Amino acid sequence: MIAPLAQRMRPRSLEDVVGQEHLLGDGKILKTILEKGTTIPSLILWGPPGTGKTTVAKLISRVAGTRFIQLSAVLSGVKDIRDAINMAKKAKDEGLHTVLFIDEIHRFNKSQQDAFLPHVEEGLITLIGATTENPSFEIIAPLLSRCKVLVFKPLSHQALEIILQRALTDRERGLGDLGISIEPQAKEFLIEHAQGDARSLLNALEVACEILLEVRPGDTGGIITQAIVEEAVQEKALRYDKSGEEHFNIISAFHKSLRGSDPDAALYWLSRMLEAGEDPHYILRRMVRFASEDIGNADPMALMIAISALQAFDFLGSPEGDLAIAQAAVYLATAPKSNAVHKAFGNAIKDAQKFGSLPVPLHLRNAPSKLMKRLGYGKGYKYPHDYKEASVYQEYLPSELRNRLYYFPTTRGHERTIKERLDKWRRLKQNKRPNLWEIHKGHLDKD
């Protein structure tokens, strides 16, 4: 039985590995360890599927000349761990060190992970665990402290393009004998669909080749078209390049639909992005920003709704979590709008940049030491809770910015209430009528 293309195309040396240059490039951690020939530390390889974790683990063992034992945490139990340790002991008697590789190590429970500790500590095995989950939450602390965590990144567009081309041209292990080529737009769609996952890319390419050969039975050659790739991955290619102009056009349309209070248009553009494979976290980041930039205090709940949608999506994943994104989008579109906080913050930043490091007024400074008190720190500060309605007139800005105003709330939504309250306070301050403010309830100089 012929092995799948993704299996056949595994790199045979570290030099053949594409991507992960931050780990395998010149002067980087893994290459340095292997070149120096030092003892390989136990490792946790953390990253998305199809980024080379298993391949790199095998190659590390090969370069180091060790016995390689592989277990899957999904399929293995305590007996399998015990058998692997016994094999490592036999290898040691033969003068061989053992690399024990655990795929999806986060699937092992606490007691199973505990079983590795003594053998890692005594140096019987070098443990290399692969995980798609955050090790901080999924790997027990004693084991994690004995391992170095290496982060694998999703493969870049360029890396996937190299892998695809190798598979099409390699005559020994790939599809080179078939003389198959691929249309540029079909290649781009295939790479986009892979989402940084080489295994997904090669699996889809192999299915596309099978479809092509079914159309041309007993023949070689031919071109993989966009239609064939769409059939192979069972997904239509929407016009949406995540790094090109259409990406920015659609996110702009989504943002403007939210700002324009059109939930129907917002849902359409949201659906376009999700169906085209946009990263939901990118959309959610834009929505969280929108909640502050375009809604602000007109509806303070908007920011909470956007954050809740992010948390719900992280908890549920796709497609279940997509509904939380849609719910939040409708809420943001139908909420009252105000950019007053956004404008106020922008103007405050301009003054901070223009005036530089203005000194904090003495009465606003804390005075934890006697020296500071002698220098006047905190002198004259009025503690608002000692006054009626917890309000008292005093200056909070540096003297150079006295009476400067930044925030002008609208009359929309909750900002109407804020505006009424703030207008009252500002009138009192402008009139400088302390007798309306200074209804003393306690000590004046309170820190």
UniProtKB/TrEMBL annotation:
GO biological process: DNA synthesis involved in DNA repair; DNA-templated DNA replication
Gene3D superfamilies: 1.10.8.60, 1.20.272.10, DNA polymerase III clamp loader subunits, C-terminal domain, P-loop containing nucleotide triphosphate hydrolases
InterPro entries in alphabetical order: AAA+_ATPase, AAA_assoc_2, AAA_ATPase_RarA/MGS1/WRNIP1, ATPase_AAA_core, DNA_pol3_clamp-load_cplx_C, MgsA_C, P-loop_NTPase
Entry keyword Lipid biosynthesis: no
CDD domains xrefs: AAA (cd00009), HLD_clamp_RarA (cd18139)
Keyword Coiled coil: no
A GO term for molecular function: DNA binding
Ranges annotated as spanning the membrane: none
UniProt KW keywords: ATP-binding, Nucleotide-binding
Ranges of residues in domain AAA+ ATPase: 39-156
Any single Pfam family the record assigns to this protein: AAA_assoc_2
Function per UniProt: DNA-dependent ATPase that plays important roles in cellular responses to stalled DNA replication processes.
Protein family membership: Belongs to the AAA ATPase family. RarA/MGS1/WRNIP1 subfamily.
Protein's name according to its UniProt entry: Replication-associated recombination protein A
